[in-house]
Amino acid sequence: METIQKDFEWNGKVALITGIGGQDGSYLAEFLLSKGYKVRGMIRRSSYPNTKRIDHLDIYDDVYGKTPESPFYLLYGDLSDSTSIRNILEEVQPDEVYNLASQSHVSVSFNSPESTLNFNAIGPLRILEAIRNMKLSCKYYQASSSEMYGISPPPQNEETPMIPQSPYGISKLAAFHLTRMYRNAYGLYATNGILFNHESPRRGVNFVTRKITRGLAYILTGRKEKLSLGNLDAKRDWGYAKEYVEAMWLMLQQDKPDDYVIGTKESHTVKEFVEEAFNLVNLNWKDFVEILDRYKRPAEVPTLLADSSKAERVLGWKPKTKFKDLVKIMVAADLKEAMQETGYLHVNDMNMPDDFYIEKGKELAKGIKLKRKRI
Ligand code: NAP
Ligand code: G4F
Fold first, then answer.
1. Is the pLDDT of residue 2 over 70?
2. What percent of the chain has pLDDT over 70?
3. Are 102 and 19 in contact (CB under 8 A)?
4. Taking residues 88-113, what's their average pLDDT?
5. DSSP letter for each residue of 142-167
């Protein structure tokens, strides 16, 4: 986690982030704090802590507590609960609202379609309606998704027809249109960021990239023998989440609300991701990966490839981290974590460059190959 400065100079703005405990919410909170925003985050009650990604921001609590002066604090709420949304908006009086909360797993949306639609489609409606009724003049960001394009052929941009293939995609498309509707009908400053897949060491462990990098780290540290996956032929445009949150912020700094596609303009198959990860430590992925039907979906989105020219032109935003670098960042981070947990690392080895952990991974891989030869 990044070191956060306790010294804080307020820029006069307050941001509310829903889904602050998620991958993007945690990076966005750090980014906005670094820009001098006071950040307030909505989290929902959980029987087990769901704030691991933002616990390092607790440092502000020692100095300020939960006061209007505090740079950062959390409030309980839920996208399915209009009362909590209104109460939070009333207390926070935000200048900018980033609605990142959602049931974000496509595969899970086939198992829980009703709650997915409730959180992801009606949730944004609840926020937009509250903003309208309360006559707040804040700017609203909606976390829209490339999953909305579904089977529309690549490359996809702001003009591409959307033909979603999952309850998740449909829920996000409804929210996308609601956001546009509140903009056009009521004059709200409401913007859609149509983000293509973005990953990081903070990615949830059951999304395919993290499942692969963590699975590899578990194999190398002897905690697992195999990695089970589904469809390896799907293509995705994978970028680095830490860079994508700046695009969200840039969207809300424009004079007028609009919709923007954010991606890397590069697409790779799941197979290529697995291959790249295992190659980094000199292992052949085919020796470790099994395909199970249970990880395949009732309907699939075959190819996503962003045409993010508009964001480049209007926002001046371009991704810096491309495919190979992203895989390396994630493999190194998972190796570091797994090696720490299994006692392979000394305390002094915790702040080394990525190559250090990759080299350690290669050493472990040699041992695994030798063991396999003997058997
Ligand atoms: P994530 O890691 O799954 O985070 C989602 C967050 O939403 C979590 O903090 C979760 O809380 C919270 N949440 C879920 N249901 C909620 C509810 N009913 N009320 C309040 N909070 C709720 O997702 P992410 O990758 O950061 O993505 C952020 C947003 O961008 C999501 O809306 C996602 O659909 C969208 N998006 C993501 C990508 C991507 O590639 N990452 C691409 C396009 C769009 P818990 O921890 O309690 O579950
Ligand atoms: O990592 P995934 O689960 O991401 P998916 O479905 O593309 O959704 C992500 O990106 C969307 C943007 O387009 C976001 F809106 C959404 O919130 C989420 O962040 O799966 C990627 C691909 C799929 O084609 C899937 O079928 O990987 C394939 N896959 C193959 N084996 C697998 C697996 N996916 C998962 N999760 N687990 C597997 O074992």
1. no
2. 98
3. yes
4. 98
5. EEEEGGGGBTPPSSB-TTS--B--SH
Cβ(326)–Cβ(199) under 8 Å? yes
Ligand 2, atom 21: closest residue by C-alpha: 208
Domains located in the chain, CATH noted: 14-201+238-262 (3.40.50.720), 208-234+267-304+323-374 (3.90.25.10)
Q: Using an 8 Å Cβ cutoff, are 285 and 221 in contact?
A: no
- Measured distance CA(218)–CA(278) in Å, rounded: 12
Here the tokens at position 154 are: 């690549």
Mutate which of 99, 166, 172, 207 for ligand 2? The one with the most ligand atoms within 8 Å of its CB, which is: 207
Q: For residue range 310-355, what is the model confidence (pLDDT) as tens digits? A: 999 999 999 999 999 999 999 999 999 999 999 999 889 999 999 9
Alpha-helical segments (H) within the chain: 23-34, 59-64, 82-92, 106-111, 113-117, 123-133, 167-186, 208-220, 241-252, 270-280, 309-310, 323-341, 354-374
pLDDT exceeds cutoff 80 at 192: yes
235 Cα to the center of ligand 1, angstroms: 22
Local structure of residue 294 (DSSP, 8 states):
G
Mean pLDDT of the chain: 96
Q: Is 101 in the pocket of ligand 1 (CB under 6 A)?
A: yes
